[in-house]
Amino acid sequence: MRLPQRQLAVLEAASATDERTIDEMATATGLKPETVVGAAFDLRDEGLLSLAERTVDTLDLTDEGRRYVDGGLPETRLYRAGLALDADESAVSMGEVIGEAGLEGPEVDIALSNFARKGLGSIDSGELRVDPDVDPDADPEAAALAALVEGDDPAADEAVLDQLDSRGLVDRAESVTRSATLTEDGVDALMTGVEATETVSELTPELLASGEWRDVEFSEYNVEADAPTARGGRKHVLRRTADRVKDVLVGMGFQEMEGPHADSDFWINDCLFMPQDHPARTHWDRFALDVDPMDRIPDELIARVEATHRDGWGVDGDGYHSPWSEEFAREVALRGHTTSLSMRYLSGIAGAELEPPQRYFSVEKVYRNDTLDPTHLLEFFQIEGWVMAEDLSVRDLMGTFEEFYRQFGITDIRFKPHYNPYTEPSFELFGEHPETGEEIEIGNSGVFREEVTGPLGVDCDVMAWGLALERLAMLTTGAEDIRDLHGTLADIDFLRNAEVSY
Ligand SMILES: N[C@@H](Cc1ccccc1)C(=O)O
User: Fold this and answer.
1) Distance between CA 21 and CA 164 in Å, rounded?
2) What is the 479 CA–ligand 1 centroid distance (Å)?
3) Which of 195, 253, 358, 502 could form a disulfide with 388 if both were Cys (CB 3.0 to 4.6 A apart)?
């Protein structure tokens, strides 16, 4: 019998009585493990070897995990600092607790989100309270980390290990070990004597010129051989979703809007008939900027918006009858929605043509002082849009959404009546999460009131919306936590592997 050199070497390294692993045979033959695997597969196909496969889980602490074994988990440090400041008795300012805990940089986010996830207390309006009934020494994640550092079995639930893995505190890997034993045919072959054939893995000009190619044996491609995973760069899931959104909207006849992230309250709120004492306009919710007030706002527009806030628009209108401050309107903050762009475009100052019909959109970042949780980020992307035309109805709005979401394979959106100071009627949109089955809010919409369009000089209907890009991505990728998508806690494995399903 003749076998290629490397197969013969592997055959000779195998035993009929002991299982030999690929690594053992690689050491014995001096071949690379991947070469041994390839040869072993071929020998198995010839019936000379039998191969057994075993999958083993390995679990290693990452540097971050190791740090927490010594210093404590950030959320536990936050909890203990809270206790030290009597936050079990009454709420304490978050800044103070963070300072007491000595948390810095990304650890602050990590502490806050895990504090909330584990129910160690509550965070509301910038203040923190700790739950006195929690036992900070009984944390299963901390216990598993401590066991691992000692080299012990963490003896933890699968859910705890998954959590440590998604926090990047452990490296979890599955490795496959293959081992071989000689079959009876293999033993027979060795006893009767096997000769080596020369195999050639590359067809060279010399082989061709000499005609030797006729006599040599070519090694085969082994598509099952283990190979390292090659990771090239790839576009972020969210960017791919945003690009797709733009394509879809452009396909539906929309043009793109652009404008400032930091804008005056005038464009962000006043144009939208949002009363100046609306809760969303307090310092809790907005990120105010300490910069000069915005001066380039048309005077006539300011006058019309002010009059509308005071007395309403049109003969039957009614305003808020409360003081309106031009100074406040000119203050600059990070926009909490991109409806500020819609206001700029509808007013005509952005240079857009105002004759109906018009369709505009943007996919841009907005900023809100929300509490981080699985469906909320402090910075996220809104898909803003509006259509200006004569005689629009709610049916047009619903039809637009149905068509838009259908492009992403989402055909079961639901509508619920809602209230916005600037639209009437208004409704929110919901979609069903493909993994959890939960209904999640994916957008807010309505037809702008005359109090909004009137002062801007628009005298036909305008229907408009703000949809959440991250929530759309949650529906299309199945991500269950918005923080896996972007931000300091993003899940790198998810970002590497997520497919955008359309
Ligand atoms: N600005 C709203 C979305 C919206 C835009 C335009 C009209 C109606 C609703 C939000 O952020 O939730």
Assistant:
1) 31
2) 24
3) 358
Find out whether 480 and 373 touch, Cβ atoms under 8 Å: no
Strands 358-367 and 255-256: parallel
Q: What's the 3-state SS for 362-410?
A: EEEEEECCCCCECCECCEEEEEEEEEEECCCCHHHHHHHHHHHHHCCCC
- For ligand 1, atom 5, the nearest C-alpha belongs to 465
pTM (two decimals): 0.63
445 lines ligand 1 (CB under 6 A): yes
Is the distance from CB of 370 to CB of 377 less than 8 angstroms? yes
491's tokens: 């899940």
Q: Indicate which residue's Cα is closest to atom 8 of ligand 1.
A: 445
Residue of 270, 272, 335, 339 to mutate, ligand 1, most atoms within 8 A of C-beta: 339
Backbone angles phi, psi at 113, to 5 degrees: -70, -35
- 465 CB near ligand 1 (under 6 Å): yes
Phi, psi of 418 (to 5 degrees): -150, 175
**Which are the contacts of 242, defined by CB distance < 8 A and separation ≥ 6?**
363, 381, 469
- Structural contact between residues 150 and 69, judged by C-beta atoms closer than 8 angstroms: no
Task: For residue 51, give both structure tokens.
Answer: 């191969």
Q: Which 3 state secondary structure label does DSSP give 190?
A: helix
The two tokens of residue 122 are: 């509550």
pLDDT band for position 156 (50/70/90)? Answer: confident
pLDDT digits (tens, 9 = 90+) for 86-118: 999 999 999 999 999 999 988 999 999 999 899
For 107-110, the CB contacts below 8 A with 24+ separation are 107/74, 108/74, 109/372, 109/487, 109/488, 109/489, 110/74, 110/75, 110/167, 110/488, 110/489
Give dist(CA 367, CA 464) in Å, integer: 19
Q: Tokens in use for 38?
A: 């390839």
Judge whether 166 and 158 are in contact, CB under 8 Å.
no
